[in-house]
Structures are given as C-alpha cells and as structure tokens.
Specification:
globular; about 300 residues; 14 helices; mainly alpha
Length: about 300
C-alpha cells in the first residue's frame, strides 16, 4: 500500500520523492512546457530541481522540529505532489527562490518559542521576507505573518515591533546600493511597484482550471474534515498551527492579486496546504479511503501533464 510507505519516516522516502520529482521535471519541461532540448534548458531544469529539494528539506525540518504532524512523511509527499500539479512553476526560478526565503522566514519565526535570541530571530524572519521580495514583489505580504508571530508568542514589546523596519532598511540599503553600482535603478524601483492584476482569461485554460479545482476540492475537504475532528483543537491552539493557517490565508491573497497568471502564483500555498492535508490524511481511519486519497494525488499530475 502506497500510504503505508509514507506513514512512517524513512530516508528512502526522500529518495522516492526525489526520483519522482526528477522524472516529472523532465516531463514538465519537455512535454508540458514544450521546452527545446539544449544546455540552457537543462541548466534551468537543474536549478528548479535543486531549489525544490532545498525547499523539501526545509519543510521536513520545520515539520519535525515543531511537531506539525505525527512522525510520518505525508507532509513532504504532498509538498512534492502539489508542486507537480502545476508544472509551470518549474520554469519560474525567481518564484522558487522566493519560496525558499519564505520558508526560511517561517523557520526562524516558529523558533521564537524557544525564548532564546528572540530579537535576532525576528530580524532574520523579517530579513528573509524582504529578500524574497527582490525575487517576487508580492512576497512582502508575508511580513504580516512575522507580526502575527510576534503577537502570538507574546513578544510584542515595542522594540520587537520595530525590528522588521530595521530589516527593511537593511535590505533596501543593500539593494539600492547594489543596483546603483550596476546602473540599474529602474529595476530596483520596479520591485517597489505592487499593482494588482486580475486575469480572467486563465480560467478558460484546462491546464490551469483542472489542477486548481482539484487542489481546492481536496484542500477544502481536508480542512473541513480535519477541523471537525477532536484532534484539530490541539493543532489550532498551538502557535505553529495558527501560523500555518495564517500563512495559507496570505498565500491565497497573494495568488489572487499577484501579476502572475500561469498557475505559478499558488506556490506559497503549497507548504501550508501540505501540512493541513497531511494532518487530515493521518487522521483517516479507513485504509481504503486513505489509499484512494493518496493515489489521487499521484494520478492527477500525470493527467495534467498530458492535457
């Protein structure tokens, strides 16, 4: 049974997911994106693979350290499979880099609970958010997650509330100086322009609407089904659990108003959705239902690949 493989933590699960991801990356680039066969494309493919693997290890680290789920591999399983639902993300290197920085920010944010080096952790979490904005401007919205963490961990001393502004000044100073030295200030100013863009045409494309509808249905079902169970109380009363839910809300907002219109804008919702769906799957008692749920996430990426 496939679900039994990921129902426990095992190094081989990383290998299985890495192999699946590498094969799907190749299929995504050459079948879905119709990319030409040349060295430039292979280099971009390698970049995408490396960034997603880095993200995968960050997700697993955050999950294990904060006990977001039980001791299993469902979170990283769904993280990889949801990525494969949207092959256009593979071609968006800047978005993949921004996602890594947002995950680094979340990692530092949840570590505040140790009560050690709180100021440094708030600074780091803010810094990574602002660095991410140089790769994807709408990432700046995740600074609200930093402030949410400050209040949830009851570290809302006025000095802590000012730390994100110090991080902002630091990043802006370094960014402005760098672009000034290379005589490209127009690009620097472009990062500061956040203009919402609503593209209705994308909903006419089956390659967009099918994976989006599938993810929405499975995501909403997981959220509703899980939070109706008793064990959801322990999750939503813990700060990391609340931050996951808030992160999903911000990610959905970014996806709605961002300038991207090719499914890549859903990237920031992949981590929180992976955690929530994993929490639901590990709570399923009926083996056939768990197996069907897991298999649907394996089959759907292949369906989308050949649409």
């Amino acid at each position: 049974m496939i679900s039994s493989i990921f129902d426990r933590t095992n190094p081989i699960n990383f290998i299985i997911l890495a192999v699946f991801l590498s094969l799907f990356l190749v299929g995504g680039f050459f079948l879905y994106l119709d990319a030409p066969v040349n060295l430039q494309v292979f280099f971009k493919l390698f970049q995408s693979f490396a960034l997603i693997i880095i993200s995968l290890f960050l997700v697993d680290f955050v999950n294990r350290k904060n006990f977001l789920t039980k001791s299993n591999s469902f979170t990283i399983f769904f993280f990889v499979l949801i990525f494969c639902l949207f092959p256009k993300i593979f071609n968006e290197i800047n978005l993949l880099v921004a996602n890594v920085f947002i995950l680094l920010s979340f990692r530092r944010l949840v570590s505040i609970r140790s009560n050690r080096d709180v100021e440094i952790k708030i600074f780091d979490a803010s810094l990574w958010v602002f660095v991410a904005t140089f790769f994807y401007s709408w990432s700046v919205f995740f600074i609200f997650l930093v402030y949410a963490g400050i209040f949830l961990y009851k570290k809302n001393d006025y000095r802590n509330l000012l730390i994100p502004f110090v991080a902002l000044f630091t990043v802006l100073s370094i960014g402005f100086t760098s672009y000034y030295l290379i005589n490209d200030l127009n690009q620097f100013y472009a990062y500061l322009q956040l203009l919402p863009k609503f593209e209705l045409e994308k909903y006419e494309d089956l390659r967009y609407i099918v994976p989006l509808v599938f993810l929405c249905v499975m995501g909403i079902w997981s959220v509703v089904a899980f939070f109706l169970r008793k064990q959801s109380k322990s999750f939503i009363t813990r700060v990391p659990g609340i931050l996951i839910i808030l992160m999903l809300g911000i990610a959905i907002l970014v996806a709605i108003i961002s300038e991207s219109a090719n499914t890549s804008e859903v990237i920031f919702s992949i981590f929180p959705l992976s955690v929530i769906i994993a929490k639901y799957v590990e709570s399923i008692d009926k083996l056939w239902l768990k197996e069907a749920f897991v298999c649907s996430f394996i089959v759907m990426p292949f369906v989308i690949l050949f649409l």
